[in-house]
Amino acid sequence: MIAPLRNQGVRPDSAHKRRRGSVIAAARWLPAPFRSRLCLAVAVSLVAFASQLAGAEEGGEAPDLLRVATLNLAHGRGLAPGQLGIPKCTFEANLDAVAVLLNRKRPEVIALQEADAASAWSGSFDHVAYLVTATQYPHVHHGVHLDAGLGAIKARYGTALLSALPLSACTKHPFAANQWHVKGFVTAEIDFAGRRLRLVSLHLDSGSKRLRQKQADEILAALRDPSLPLVVMGDFNSTWADAEDAVRKVADGLNLRPYAPEDRELLTFPSSGPGRRIDWILVSDELEFVEYAVWPDRVSDHLAVAAALRWTATPGR
User: Fold this and answer.
1) How many CB atoms lie within 10 A of CB 212?
2) Can you give the pLDDT at residue 313?
3) Per residue, what are the HEC states of the chain?
4) Which of 14, 83, 129, 256 could bridge 77 with an S-S bond, Cβ 3.0-4.6 Å?
5) 52 to each of 94, 104, 138, how far by Cα in Å?
6) Residue 249 phi, psi (nearest 5)
7) What pLDDT, on the 0 to 100 scale, is given for residue 51?
């Protein structure tokens, strides 16, 4: 029986958030060397805070369940409308908030989109490596789909998978059908409860349905291998209501299932007041949803989506 866990979870302590915000605001007025030291101290404090909360909500381990989640990181800008002009300290604080969330929830696998490598427009540091350090996920696959710029002025980002389980057969696929803001997907395989499984983190175009349809065709061509069940996660930038858009095309083409696709309580974007469900977790028939949730924590302009999965008793159920 599916037990939906919609919008559950403890928000980070409000007093802690106010203290963190006050410290960050004050840091902007300090000379650069002192500001860097203060930012480092804030980061260490947040990671320590996260470790205290780690696992508090999810309870004990369930070896027959695979907990997964997907989050568009919005290039680490948090709720800001754009990332240009934001100081590195703020990017770090925003990613620290993501780390607190992941340490509290501890999914075995997290799919990330708009996940930056060192980019001039987002603090010039690797956001995925920063999160790995803060969360201590032992396995990571980061595919950079856009790598553009001159010299040190770079824009570099893509999709990623962080995992508590070993990843193998890792691939990355920048879409051939793209505008200047290149999108794509990464894949990896894991062993879960004695069986092999392929994971996908994807990000499709936000501006053009026609382009998303072409990108969906590329996904179908790359993943039409019936030998492995799939968990496809990410920002599809499309809703279930349009039968011709990407999420329906990928689901139908790969025989994948969503959870309660018409449920209006599972909207994900924008996080400030969700009006659309564009972030999805799709699974093969060999898997079933045991839990499904949209996390309410506003660490990005998207809300994170999470699910607990298990193998079905009868394949194809």
Assistant:
1) 25
2) 80
3) CCCCCCCCCCCCCHHHHHHHHHHHHHHCCCCHHHHHHHHHHHHHHHHHHHHHHCCCCCCCCCCCCEEEEEEECHHHCCCCCCCCCCCHHHHHHHHHHHHHHHHHHCCCEEEEEEEECCCHHHCCCCHHHHHHHHHCCCEEEEEEEEEEEECCEEEEEEEEEEECCCCEEEEEEECCCCCCCCCEEEEEEEEECCEEEEEEEEECCCCCHHHHHHHHHHHHHHHCCCCCCEEEEEECCCCCCCCCCHHHHHHHHCCEECCCCCCHHHCCECCCCCCECCEEEEEECCEEEEEEEECCCCCCCCCCEEEEEEECCCCCC
4) 83
5) 19, 8, 19
6) -65, -45
7) 45
The answer to whether the CB of 226 falls within 8 A of the CB of 256 is no
Burial category of 124 from C-beta neighbours within 10 Å (exposed 0-12, middle 13-18, buried 19 and up): middle
Angle CA(285)–CA(287)–CA(292) in degrees, nearest 5?
115
Separation between Cα atoms, residue 250 and residue 154, nearest integer Å: 32
pLDDT grade for 23, boundaries at 50, 70 and 90: very low
- Residues 185 and 168: beta-carbon distance below 8 Å: no
At 179 the pLDDT is 75
* pLDDT score, position 3: 44
Structure-model confidence comparison of residues 13 and 210, the more confident one: 210
18: pLDDT strictly greater than 50 = no
Percent of the chain with pLDDT over 90: 71
Distances (CA, A) of 109 to 92, 183, 228: 22, 21, 17
Under CATH, what is the fold of the domain 14-311?
A: Deoxyribonuclease I; Chain A (3.60.10)
% of the chain beyond a pLDDT of 70:
78
What pLDDT, on a 0 to 100 scale, did the predictor assign at position 159?
Answer: 98
